[in-house]
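Re: folding output
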Amino acid sequence: MYYTFDVQTAAQRFQDEIPRWFAPGAVYTFVGAGGKSTALRRVASLLADRGVRVRLTTTTRVGMAEFRGWTVQTVRNLAEAQQAVDGPERVKLLAAGPVQGQEKYAGVAAGMVDAIRLQADIVLLVEGDGSRRLPAKVPREHEPVVPSGSRAVLAFVGASALDEPLDELHCYNHERALALLGRTVSSLGAAEMAALAAHHHGLRKGLLPSMTFRLVINQGDLPAKRATALLALRLAWERDGVEGALASFQEGELYGTSRD
C-alpha cells in the first residue's frame, strides 16, 4: 500500500503562515535590516487580500520610491491620523509629509501611533528604524523607535550578511555589533546571529515585556545561505527561546522556522 502526503511548497507555506503572525486590531513594528520595506509591502498585500484593512507608517523615514503607486496620506496631528486610519481604503501609508531635500517621507511620533484607536479589522504596521540598505544592523543609541503599544516586534536580518565579514559593508553600526559579540569575532556566523537576536542591546533593543519578539531572516532565496540561517534560528530558539523564520519576502516563500 502506498501513501501520499500533501507537502507544502515554500510559496504555499508563506501564504498560509505569514498572515497568522498579524492579528487584526493591533500594531506590529518591523526593525533591523535586510528588506523591511519589502516585507511591509508584502505583508500589507497578503492581509489586504484576506479582507484586512492595513495601515503602514514609520517612526523614522521611508523612501518615497518604496511606496510609489500606494495611497499615501499626510497626517500632522492625532485627529488627522485617526481619520486616515478609519478610512475605507484597503491599504494606506501614513506619513508626516515629505522630507525637505530628500526623496523620503517623514514618520509620525511613536506617541501618536499609541494614541490611535484601531478598529477590529485593521492592522497597523510600523517601520521602526533604518539600515542604509545594508543586510544587517545593530541599533544606535537613539533607535529603534518602537511604539509602546506594539503587540510584536519583528527583527529582520538579510541572509546575505551571514558568513560574511562583520564590517561596514555588511552591517550598519558594525562597531557596536563587534562590541556586543566580542572583538575576536570577524564574521557573522550562526552563533553570532543568534547572540545578536537574543541581546537586549542587539535586535531586542526597545522590546517591552508585553511584546512578542520574532527573528526574521530574509533573503532566504539565497540557497548558499540557508544552512547557516536555519542553524541560527535553531540556536536562537534552543538557547534563548527566540522564535524565528527564514523567508524571502521578495519571492513570497517560507523555508523554515525555529520550531521545524
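--- second protein (sequence, then structure) ---
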Amino acid sequence: MRALLLAGLLLAAAASHADGALHTLWEVHGKHNTIYLLGSIHVLRSRDYPLAKPVLDAYADAKSVVMEIDLNELDAGGVQEEMLSSALLRDGKSLADVLGAARYARATSLAKDIGIDLSTFDQFAPWFVAEAISQLQLAQQGYQAESGVEMYFLERARGDGKSVAGLETAHDQIAVFEAMPLDEQSEYLLSSLEEAREMPHEVDDMVHAWATGDTGWFKTHLKRELGRDPKLYQSVLGARNRKWLPKIEALLNDDKNYLVIVGTGHLVGEDNVIDLLKRDGIAASQR
C-alpha cells in the first residue's frame, strides 16, 4: 500500500550512520523488560545491509519479534486469495468506469509519463493500482520486499529460534483499503500518480532523513501525503495506532525483551504510537 510504503521508507542507508547519530529506534522500559520500537521500510536493497549497530543490538537483546503482521501468514493460500478478491473490481466494472472519463484520461497520461500502461490494471480497484505502481517504481530502483527490514528480521528470527507475532492480521490490513469508498480510492490513485515522478528523488531524501534521525522530515511528508484527507490518515495510521497501543503496553508486563517493528509513519506524526504511549505516562527514548 503506497501510503504505508511512504510511511515506512527509511532504512535504506543504515550502513552510512555516523557514530552517535539518532535512528528511528526508540526504547521503552517496563518493570522487568525493554521494548524496542523500530521504524521500518517494507522494501529495501540488498546493498543497504548491514543495518546500523543499534538496530542489530536491539534485535540481539530481544527474545521475541513483533511486527505489524506475522509475515508467516503470507505463506497461507487464503491470504493470497483474499488479496486478489479485494483487489478486483466487482459487478463488471472497470477502472475507467470507476474513475470516470476525466480522471481516467488524466491518470492514463500520468502513468504513461512514468512508462506504465494504465489499461494493464483495468480490472483492479484504484487502491490496488496505486500500490502496484508504487511497487513497480521501487523495484526499478532496486528495492524489493524480499530485502525489506521485516523479511530480514523474520529470517533472522527463524534461524535464531525467536518467536514472531503480529499486532494485526493480513486481513486487517487488506480491510483498511477495501473499506475506502471508490471515489476516495480514485482520488488516492490520481494523487499518487501526480507525485510518481518525484519518487526517485524522495527515496534519496528519505535515506538522508534516516541517516540523520530526522523524524521531522517524515512528519512533513506524512502530512503532505495523508493530511489532506483526515479520514484517510486515521484509517491508515491513527486508528491502527490506537488499536495497537494496548497490545504494545501489555508487552511491558512481561519479563522478556521485545523488538516491535512497524512502518515509520506509525512512530511519527499525529496520533503516533510514541505520543500515545507518552499520554499514558510511558516515556520512550530515541536511540
